[in-house]
Amino acid sequence: MEINKLDWTTEGYDYKLPEERIAQNPVVPRDQSRLLVIDSLTSHHHRIFRDLPHWLKSDDLLVFNNTQVIPARLYGHKSSGGSVEILLLEEQKPNFWLALVKPGKRFKPGVRIEFEPLHPAPDSILQPLSATVVDTDETTGGRLLEFNLPQGQSLIEQLDQFGHIPFPPYVNQSQAFPQQYQTIYAQRPGAVAAPTAGLHFTEELFERLHHQGIHKAFVTLHVGVGTFRPVEVQDITTHQMHAEWIEVSSETVKQIQKTKANGGRVIAVGTTVVRTLEGVAMAEGKLTPYSGKTDAFIYPGYQFQVIDGLITNFHLPRSSLMMLVAAFIGRQRLLDLYQDAIAQSAEGFTHPYRFYSFGDAMLILPEARISRS
User: Fold this and answer.
1) Are residues 254 and 310 in the same domain?
2) pLDDT surpassing 60 at residue 46
3) Where is this protein found (predicted)?
4) In terms of domains, do 272 and 140 share one?
């Protein structure tokens, strides 16, 4: 397939979305969301997510990101009295966290921040929490904060008392509970945003997939600024992803190898799984057990080495996530599918297609993958 010059420009990934199509609340139950199935180079179908087993085969492998969203948004005030809001991004060393700070320009090294607990309690029960700005980060525009904690304690242990689950900024009229922004299989705390393709799965759906002989494997990518940071350069080939922590176990590598040997298909549940598996393959030359960071950026022209199919939500315009999906099925086809989803009514379904984190999903099967020859 030839590369169109728009494939490598941010404007090539623009589209207009009516504001009412931005999902503010999740569907209940989770697997009642809509599913756009792309099953060939020319065809697609409008279904419900609970129909997923119909489109998969025995010995297929679904790979999930088991990261857990932490209560990463904290509110407080400077020692001088000004209000503060921070969003934790990642722990760079024990009790030193990179964070986005509002209002950022006023937070120079040396500024002390005192945080407000969710449920005030006597000092003898709840220890106060504070942090000091020790550095700035040019890449993210954030600050490096040193949290003042008793020896042997970590900030993660304190977040249930001080932190809020950070819904995305476009989810601003939601009645959702924090647990609805977690996958049902979340196990490893560290993300500041959910791997949203996994939000559609229920225990009942897992049971049906199991009875059909469809297997599960897990990786970890702690979703951070690298995933949701906008692409701000015109030429996307010059965009630099912020590195995020990943882990691929030897067991998952063996499951993927066994699946391929048996003729099964490896279906990534979410773009974070794609970045994890393909990022390891890019860095190491092949898929291998790995623990570290990835700054993999996938866009049209990329040759996929590990995954065969993909489950993903509908993404923001000009985002690196759209560019990753476009690498799989082509930019123009992706835009055409988005426009078709926007044009679809709720006739025959409980709602029209809804977009972004609490929105609906796409299943892209291997037969829809564009050829690179």
Assistant:
1) yes
2) yes
3) Cytoplasm
4) no
Q: Are 129 and 94 contacting, i.e. CB atoms less than 8 angstroms apart?
A: no
pLDDT of residue 164 exceeding 90, the answer is: yes
Whether 52 and 149 share a structural domain: no
Quick: pLDDT tens for 205-252. 999 999 999 999 999 999 987 777 789 999 999 999 988 999 999 999
What element of type H or E holds 130?
strand 129-137
The CATH number for 154's domain is 2.40.10.240
**φ, ψ (nearest 5 deg) of residue 337:** -65, -40
For strands 67-69 and 290-294, give the pairing: unpaired
Both 266 and 355 in one domain: the answer is yes
Residues 57 and 191 in one domain: yes
- Among 162, 186, 216, the domain boundary falls at 162
Q: Is residue 373 part of a domain?
A: no
How far are the Cα atoms of 13, 27, 140, 240 from residue 298, in angstroms, in the given order?
Answer: 14, 30, 20, 11
User: 241 with 309, same domain?
Assistant: yes
pLDDT tens for 237-294 read 999 998 899 999 999 999 999 999 999 999 999 999 999 999 999 999 999 999 999 9
Structural domain containing residue 184: 5-69+173-368
- Total domain count for the chain? 2
Cα–Cα dist 311/289, whole Å: 23
Confidence of residue 123 (pLDDT cuts 50, 70, 90): low
* Token pair recorded at residue 231: 């692409």
pLDDT of the residue at 1: 56
Pairing state between β 83-93 and 96-102: antiparallel
What is the chain's alpha carbon radius of gyration, rounded to the nearest angstrom? 21
- Which ranges constitute the DSSP H helices of 269-330? 271-284, 320-329
Question: Hey, what are 293's tokens?
Answer: 């960071």
